[in-house]
Amino acid sequence: MNRRPVIRPAVRRLALAAAAAGLALAGCTVGPDYQRPTVALPAALGGPEGESLGDQGWRAVFPDPALHGLIAESLAANRDLVRATYRVEEAAALVGIARSQYFPTLDAGASFTRTRLSQETGQVPPGVNPYASIHNLSGLLAWEADLWGRLRRANEAARARLLESELNRDALRNGLIAAVAAGYFDLRAFDGQLEIARKTVASRVETYELQRLRAELGDISDLELGQTEVLLREAEVAVPRLEQAIALQQHALSVLLGRNPGAVDRGRPLEELQGAVGVAAGLPAALLERRPDLRAAEQQLVALNAEIGVARAAYFPTLTLTGQAGFASGELSDLFTSPARTWAFNPALTVPIFNAGRIRANVRAAEARQRQAVAAYEGAIQTAFREVQDALVSYEAAGRVVTSQTQLVAALSSVAGLARERYDNGLSSHLEVLDAERGYFSGELALTEARRQRLQAVVAAYRALGGGWTE
Length: 471
What we know:
Elements: H1 9-24, H2 58-61, H3 65-77, H4 79-100, E1 105-116, E2 131-145, H5 150-216, H6 222-256, H7 270-273, H8 284-290, H9 292-312, E3 318-329, E4 341-350, H10 358-424, H11 430-464
Antiparallel strand pairs: 1-2, 2-3, 3-4
């Protein structure tokens, strides 16, 4: 009659004691709990009143349908952003790995052994079969009791790393939107300057042909004709340079869009975008929660803070509970019978005694990494506030430059017209006409550049305030 194996009372008491010890110490967690570093914030960010640019989506900040399409395309296909998305997936998998350590592991195994012993060495008595077979089927259950919170700290660090990777992806998305907008505004500025250059060339070609006829009739000197040609060639030189700049800018934008170099769609001209955007900064404290790069830096700090607890847990004993059960028999037909049962219970307590200071060095290294992260986080905040202030100052100054440059171009246009009229009436020299037209051409190019710089200041403010990435 087969009898069930009986677990001895001593073994049962040991198992219960080990489990009770694990439950009793489960609430103990070594290492410091995270606290956000205290950072001095400015009283205000400055800038005009109103809804902060950081609270607006990029479609509201950059009201150009063509630009909307380019940004949407970049968010869908940019290779750096795709790579960042896969980094988030990797971090999520690492969270799953860390969480799995809370639970016991169960492994199953099966084996078959066939042996023959020597009959010449006396290992097998005469008349005994020298052949033997062993069939084995077993399962192994192992669990580490998280006595000091090492696993809890490891999970805390893994979750912080996951959130850090998500926020880094959002920061990259924010930077990508800003880069596409900045590149688009540069492209539209080059387009505007090329249009000015081509119109100037066309006008100066007419003037040169007229002057050439007058020179052939002897009405003007060869010097005046040469000066007119110089003015024409100056404008002609600007055309291929601007065409090259446009081509290169389109290539750069195409890479941001995740496609091969090619043409890029255009929308509203630069001058129509000037009054469509505005900048307001908002509250300083909101910047810490709005900018994804600052939040990512804080999550890195959270992870490194938790890893101090992981390192300190190595000072303390480790309790591992291991149990094994299965069947073993010489005949396969007897494998699942009661006499073939096997089991073992093996609680193990490991206590560090001597490791030549390795644990202490690991703790000190973890603490040093955490302090580095604190300094990096504080420095990132200061840099963020500087970027906001720079963008606001640049936006305000660029607005005044656009206003003044617009008035300057109007004055230069008037002077060029008067100089041409006085020259035609013989009241001024041809040199005055050349200077006036040259100044007007340069002024128009400079006005386009001023408009570009004002829009670039909007882009810088958008990026510095962390706005729009949630869309």
